[in-house]
Amino acid sequence: MSQEEEIWKERRIEQSPRADDHREAYDRDEARLIHSSAFRRLQSKTQVLGLGESDFYRTRLTHSMEVAQIGRGIVQYLSKKNVENANKLPPKELITAICLAHDIGHPPFGHGGEVALNYCMRDYGGFEGNGQTLRILGTLDKYLEGYGLNPTRRMLLGVLKYPAAYSFLLNDMAYDAKTKDTPNWLFKAAKQKPPKCYHDDDKDIVEFILEPFSQEEKEKFTASMEYKPKNDEDRRSPETEHKLTKYKSLDCSIMNLADNISYSLHDFEDALSLELIRQSDWKRYFEEEVGGRQRKELFAKISTMRPDCAYDKITKDLFESSYTRKDAIGSLVNLMISNTQIVENDSQCLEPLLRLNVELICDVENLMKAIFDLVKKLVINNENVQQLEFKGQKLIIELFEVLATDPERFLPNKTKKIWENAAKSVLDGLSKEEQERLSVKDLVKRKQMRVICDFVSGMTDEYATKYYEKLFTPSKGSIFDHL
To answer: Of 166, 171, 220, 442, which has the most beta carbons under 10 Å away?
Structure first.
């Protein structure tokens, strides 16, 4: 094994394999993730459609399993084709672990929960779901105290979706000001979204990930850019938006693409089953003229090589029966996996894992985006879905505020001990004079608020609802109820 390969298999705390454990390092990454409590909790966290509606529709857990299957498929396809730089692709077990882990940081109630927690944490370092994934893997999960699952360096690089800190990307003008005229939970979600980042509290994890690189290489990879409007209808501007990161690692780009394919097609499949998207909606969207062209022309170039993906056939199969629908979705997933390519980004990094990305060829990329835009328009922005998100937003904020106002009274004993230790970790070794001079109270407050945030973000939808009812609903909860 080369020295370079050994570097990527290093962990923050060195751990020798147990007796007769002949697995590779990435096999152990995958196993630790699958057996973790954070992964299990995904079964009770919202994907797009609310939990409890049916046992049929996808949760974060089934979504993550599908992302892993697609991610493996991409690696297998590119390896089989023996394309240039195929030898840089991750092993199958590593990309599986990265894909399975990609959503474990997402809070209850989907993006409604994320916006709510970011609102509560605005003065204490913010909250971002992908950043929380890194935090769980590297710090929180109960495998190795203080080091989470203690994954390999390459796995951590693969889940580092946005390689810049909250404070670096933050633009305060992106947020609406807090006001006492309305309840804390009543605000426009679009004006409380966090920058896409990692949390400043987890800087040590990122330093470990990027340790093998020169300072110049680090600066190239972690570069950021101002927000650019996506089209003429996009009224946002750099003055009112957070900054954005520019680059992802090779493994992260595979995971991200697999995620995009999955939520474009599998969430679409759920919407068809629920009849949130009907055949008339599909035809109206793809046959209306946009800029003098119909969207269905996106299928035209593709269908010359893939007759099973012709517009008329896909349209017929999607709405004829559940059997033909499944076959049509399978054809589209296969189309996207088999039209991936390894490209160089413009970072000019020397390290292939930072310089190379996997992406779709242009025609297929445009088709995927068109299908996702339809899902966003008719499903994600559907008033019933947004009402569920808003309900989760209100619940999370009120729950957080109770815990933050009187944590010694309401936090569970285990979490209370972590909350108390957070203060001790700041105060230990400092004199009273140093504590006053260094504004230690603010630092203690920030650390303790992060503990409460970790606790709430780790809840499932069901646990959060029951916890809320126990606090706020008179007819719910007793001293004998154990959540």
So the answer is: 166
pLDDT tens for 235-291 read 788 899 999 999 999 999 999 999 999 989 988 998 898 888 999 999 999 998 888
On the 0-12 / 13-18 / 19+ scale of CB atoms within 10 A, 28 is buried
Tokens 């979204």 locate to: 193
| Rounded distance between C-alpha atoms, residue 10 and residue 155, angstroms | 10
Q: Could you tell me the CA-to-CA distances from 471 to 115, 120, 453, 474 in Å, in that order?
A: 22, 18, 18, 8
Contact criterion met (CB below 8 Å) for 222 and 230: no
Long-range contacts of 364-368 (CB under 8 A, 24+ apart): 364/302, 364/335, 364/336, 364/339, 366/298, 367/298, 367/299, 367/302, 368/260, 368/261, 368/264, 368/265, 368/336
pLDDT band at 48 (very low <50, low <70, confident <90, very high): low
DSSP 17: P
C-beta of residue 185 within 8 angstroms of C-beta of residue 393? yes
Structure-block tokens of residue 40 = 């299990």
Average pLDDT of the chain?
A: 90
Length of the chain, please? 483
3-state helix, strand, coil in the chain (%, to 5): 60, 5, 35
CB 97 within 8 A of CB 251: no
Question: What is the β-pairing status of strands 224-225 and 244-245?
Answer: antiparallel
DSSP 345-405: -SS--SSHHHHEEEEE-HHHHHHHHHHHHHHIIIIIT-HHHHHHHHHHHHHHHHHHHHHHH
What predicted TM-score, i.e. pTM, was given to this entire model?
0.93
The CA-CA-CA angle for residues 425, 430, 432, to 5°, reads 120
Rounded distance between C-alpha atoms, residue 83 and residue 103, angstroms: 29
